Amino acid sequence: MIAKVVVDIAADREFDYSIPEPLNAAVKLGSRVNVSFGSRQVQGYVVGFAEGSDRAALKPLESLVGDKPYIAESLIKLARWMADYYCAPVDVAVQSVLPGAVRRPAARFKERLFVKMVEDGSNSKLQTPSSNIQHLTLNDEHSPSTLHLPPSTFHPPPSRAPKQAAALAALTAHGGSLFLHELVKLSGADAAAVRALEKKGLVSIEKEQDLRNPLLSHHVLPTEPLALMPQQAAALDAIRRSLDAPAPVPLLLHGVTGSGKTEVYLQAIAHALSQDKGAIVLVPEIALTPQTIERFRGRFGDTIAVLHSSLSDGERHDEWHRLHEGVARIAIGARSAVFAPVRRLGLIVVDEEHEHTYKQEEAPRYNARDLAVMRGRLDGCAVVLGSATPSLESYRNAKTGKYERALMPHRVDHRSMPVMRIVDMRVEAEQTGHVTVFSRELVGAVRQRLQRAEQVILFLNRRGYATSLVCPKCGYVANCGHCSVALTYHRQGESLKCHICGGIVRVPSCCPGCKDPAYKLAGIGTQRVEAAVGKVFPGARVARMDTDSTATKDAHRRILGEFRTGKVDILVGTQMIAKGLDFPNVTLIGVVNADLSLHMPDFRAGERTFQLLTQVAGRAGRGDVPGEVIVQTYTPFHVAIQAARRLDYDGFCDQELAFRKELLYPPFAHLVCIGIRGGAEDKVAACAARFADRLKGLLSKEVVMDGPTPAPLAKAKNQFRYQIVLRARTARLVTDPIKSAQRGFKWPAGVHHAVDVDAVSLM
Predict the structure, then answer these.
(1) Which of the 8 DSSP states describes residue 483?
(2) What is the CATH number of domain 2-103?
């Protein structure tokens, strides 16, 4: 037999290797292998078998890594589909199925010295009757004040060896075994004392795996299933029927914010576990992960594993292997967790399925929501897409019968939805004579909540202090030299930062254009909102949650923990606090500037604004006190803002779908964006034009092509950017001609291109 191998080198092809006799029975589909590639040895994955090969002399597989396949057959099929659909190299698609922490040849389990008490003949030192336990008091400051010491289980060392006695006592108190570093810390003994016990035959010391558990220091209380409302019970029954079906249809769980979707997920997963099946839960933001983990861990304990980018490589490696070995049955994480190696996968939950963060920005540019649906088809498992504001794609799929739909139109215990008030900031500026961060209505509402010891969330989807530094005399704006965007002023460090390339420059003492020192800060960011809160509400305890404040590990958990326990009165944040979070004491949401997402050069701007306002409004009134939302905007009569005020999802969708259908935009068409970039603009423009001409001759009349034109973000990281946008009723009408046009096309040195199928952003 011939093994088809994808190697860890971008080659966009499979390579044939012969299987030597000793490995014949051991090599399986998905096996990880060492192979000779050119003059070096590399690792790869077996993605298929063949009876023969076009090549005359084949190199043999060198060796096998691990005793079982790394990639399940269904995941190999998923990778092949992903490569084909998203126009990605097959090796890149296969590699994306495995985390880098698992793929790296040097990836290993962490091993540490492990100490065990040695059994004495037929008498097990670990099975001493509790009636024989006596107390031994140790005076070492590192030791517990009292340890339970069963005297019949070992021969105590003489009194001149107190450290050895303390080590044995600590071992006994912890079931007879501990890692050496833990034993030293608990008992106050040193390694030499433990080695002395080993020489006496009282303990054994061997190397064992020490799993790096990201949840080890986080303790949660166990929870029991809650009584369900009729709408929750109906949704759960629909998911159970899907779990029990041989070929389940994806289910769209459309439930308003606070309707209890998470409890439905929990009980659905419990049903899957009762059938000896596993589950995957996807969340769109790492910020949501801590609260989600707490809810799921409280219900399912250590059967969950976490997969997201905030983990260290070691933690990600060990969590992946816990799933691969079947020790953990539930994977929770961001988009890449869709590839989790869950045994006997029975259910995939995609929470907040409408979120654009499920879209991968690098090849392969997959959407985790759509991959979840495809994996469900390949694995024969149920897929639940949950949202209070489903994407128009999922909404239409439910309307046309491709998905089932379960509705949860009421909040738990029929709590009222928050009242949304719109503040016209044009009128506010006219009445006050200047532009303000907070309207008078918002200031009064916040003061009212602070007096009642209730909590407030202030939302602004822009970080930094000011969006730009402007000279009022000559009009100079501080722009990034590498990107076509203005630099954002950050008060911390008195710096100007580019939010595209990450470049940082010091704030100039005077205008570089006219040397006038009277620089002005323009625009508002979360840092400025935080500073304004300190001035307007001096007694309030405030915290900020954005990319800058959560850069360190566990910062998400710490900030949200302080807010949950009432140590913070006002939480200022970006979109990471706009969805999924549940804080019963939050009764007021203030949206500082609702127009930021509304005026983006993207046909989805209205949809995103509606979703964002509805989601952030849903954080209010989740307890016994009704909630209120105050939205500050300069375009109060826009369709998206008025629909959000009325919480009219169906009305907004009907109007938006009519517009999309007329112009052949998703969900009535697949949108493919070809991005072309390079350091020389004329070269990029010429190359984009040549490729567009080549492609145009291959397209059918059913395909609409726009461009090539400069991208809305025309320059990023010193790269000039052009794009070609195509729309067609089926993706194949676009992707097949693109693949044909790519074959044989000579891309000049320094010019790169990327194909984004079902693009969610045209920036």
Answers:
(1) S
(2) 3.40.1440.60
Separation in Å, CA 428 to CA 432, 443, 526, 599: 6, 13, 21, 21
- Residue 338's nearest CA partner among 266, 398, 277, 283 is 283
CATH number of 419-466+523-659: 3.40.50.300
pLDDT digits (tens, 9 = 90+) for 59-111: 999 999 888 899 999 999 999 999 999 999 999 999 999 988 888 776 666 77
CA distance 143 to 663: 73
Q: Which residue has the tokens 């461009």?
A: 707
Long-range (24+ apart) CB contacts under 8 A made by 424-432 are: 424/633, 424/634, 424/636, 425/632, 425/633, 425/634, 426/634, 428/632
230-413: CATH topology: Rossmann fold (3.40.50)
* Predicted model pTM: 0.85
- Single-letter amino acid, residue 662: E
Q: How many residues does the chain have?
A: 763
Token pair, residue 359, equals 């879209």
Going by C-beta distance under 8 Å and a sequence separation of 6 or more, which residues neighbour residue 121?
none
Residues 317-354 have pLDDT tens digits of 888 989 999 999 999 999 999 999 999 999 999 999 99
Measuring CA to CA, which residue among 405, 403, 389, 395 is closest to residue 668? 395
> Token pair of 404, please?
């089932």
From CA 580, how far away is CA 87, in angstroms rounded?
33
